[in-house]
């Protein structure tokens, strides 16, 4: 180990500034993994990165002459990092590694990755300790941060188009590669979502005094049970603004550990729900309008990208299911377990913003006909 420390630099035994981590010698694990990259030498301490909620992530700088200049390390604990009481399969990191390999130049989905939209490259994987080293794609804002900055509607719509086209191609192409259903078989994630997200809708709705909480719960659970069955396409699985890094007019999509062969609604409804929430809580009406314009551009580009496969891949079923997921995600972020760390953090159930968001969410779960946000896809 001493020769590795001399080559790479020392990592202090501080659990990398995360005092709540369970007992595991992360610095030593990192050092062993870095030893597989002889061209890289550490410069300084790994720096924790914020933004994600499920994992622990650090940027590691390289010394002058190192290749690459810097990289990112990610560790998947057996729980949600921001909610340690919520258990989550740590093997999700293996799924993310598979996704990065699939979208590499020689991968089965490599043709979909372009300079405009792609995933990070994978450098190293420690399967036993659920740790990866990957490309540091950009010291740029994520989409949530970018949307709060001054940009034009045209710029927002351009990014919406790029992302919608990419996700549409992902769903369309993967629907015709049946081998992906086994390669990205990720049942534990869907069981967790059934228990934590769809299975809690009655509690969330009751907490907000919604009179038909049981009806909403039944619709959510029916959808959650469908998600336990074989899927139709490869989905990203956690498509929200913090998973999209923006560099000028280029996008880098990160955090693929929830990817699986499933229902396209979990990408479409998820992303639209988060754009709606960001628009709802935007600092100004102009920012809100710009965010909603991005969502419309995303949905139009998604539908166009599916082309003649639209009915087979998405269709009316996808529209209805996207509406349900849209509502479930908003409830989880407003009156549910994932309120902390997001735009409604700290607001009580009776706050006007919570009341309005709950009304939007529950109307989407009741019926997709109540969904002007997703109407582009109807």
Beta-strand segment tally: 12
Strand content: 5-15%
- Per DSSP, the total helix count is 14
Largest sheet: 5 strands, antiparallel
Radius of gyration: 21 Å
Relative helix content: 40-55%
Order of neighbouring strands in the sheet with most strands: 1-2-3-8-7
Could you give the distance between the termini?
A: 60 Å
Order of helices and strands: HHEEEEEHEEEHHHHHHEEEEHHHHH
State the low-pLDDT regions, or none.
Answer: 1-16
Name the average pLDDT: 89
Q: What is the overall shape?
A: globular
Would you mind describing this structure in some detail?
With 378 residues, this protein is an alpha+beta fold. It has helices at 2-8, 26-34, 92-102, 143-148, 153-174, 180-183, 187-196, 201-207, 213-226, 265-280, 285-306, 310-313, 315-334, 352-366; strands at 47-48, 56-61, 70-75, 79-80, 83-87, 117-118, 122-126, 131-135, 233-235, 244-247, 250-253, 260-262. The strands form four sheets. It has a five-stranded antiparallel β-sheet with strand order 1-2-3-8-7, with helices on both faces. Strands 6-11-10 form a three-stranded mixed β-sheet. It has a two-stranded antiparallel ribbon with strand order 4-5. A hairpin with a 2-residue loop joins β10 (244-247) and β11 (250-253).
């Amino acid at each position: 180990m001493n020769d590795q420390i001399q080559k790479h630099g020392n990592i202090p035994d501080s659990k990398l500034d995360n005092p709540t981590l369970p007992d595991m010698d992360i610095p030593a694990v990192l050092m062993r993994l870095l030893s597989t990259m002889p061209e890289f030498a550490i410069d300084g301490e790994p720096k924790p990165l914020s933004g994600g909620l499920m994992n622990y992530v650090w940027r590691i700088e390289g010394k002058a002459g190192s290749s690459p200049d810097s990289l990112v390390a990610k560790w998947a604990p057996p729980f949600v990092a921001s909610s340690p009481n919520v258990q989550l399969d740590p093997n999700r990191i293996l799924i993310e590694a598979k996704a990065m390999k699939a979208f590499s130049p020689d991968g089965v989905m490599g043709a979909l990755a372009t300079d405009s939209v792609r995933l990070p490259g994978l450098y190293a994987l420690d399967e036993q300790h659920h740790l990866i080293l990957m490309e540091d794609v950009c010291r740029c804002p994520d989409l949530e941060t970018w949307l709060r900055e001054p940009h034009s509607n045209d710029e927002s719509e351009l990014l919406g188009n790029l992302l919608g086209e990419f996700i549409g191609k992902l769903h369309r192409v993967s629907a015709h590669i049946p081998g992906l259903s086994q390669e990205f078989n990720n049942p534990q994630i869907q069981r967790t979502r059934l228990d934590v997200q769809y299975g809690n809708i009655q509690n969330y709705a009751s907490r907000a005094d919604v009179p038909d909480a049981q009806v909403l719960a039944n619709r959510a659970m029916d959808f959650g049970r469908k998600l336990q069955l074989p899927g139709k396409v490869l989905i990203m699985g956690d498509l929200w603004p913090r998973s999209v890094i923006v560099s000028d007019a280029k996008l880098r999509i990160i955090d693929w550990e929830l990817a699986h062969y499933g229902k396209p609604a979990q990408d479409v409804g998820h992303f639209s729900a988060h754009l709606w929430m960001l628009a709802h809580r935007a600092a100004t009406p102009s920012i809100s309008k710009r965010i909603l314009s991005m969502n419309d551009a995303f949905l139009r580009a998604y539908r166009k990208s599916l082309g003649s496969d639209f009915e087979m891949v998405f269709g009316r079923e996808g529209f209805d299911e996207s509406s349900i997921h849209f509502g479930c995600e908003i409830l989880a972020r407003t009156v549910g377990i994932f309120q902390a760390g997001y735009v409604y953090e700290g607001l009580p159930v009776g706050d006007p913003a919570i009341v309005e968001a709950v009304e939007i969410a529950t109307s989407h779960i009741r019926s997709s006909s109540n969904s002007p946000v997703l109407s582009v896809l109807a």
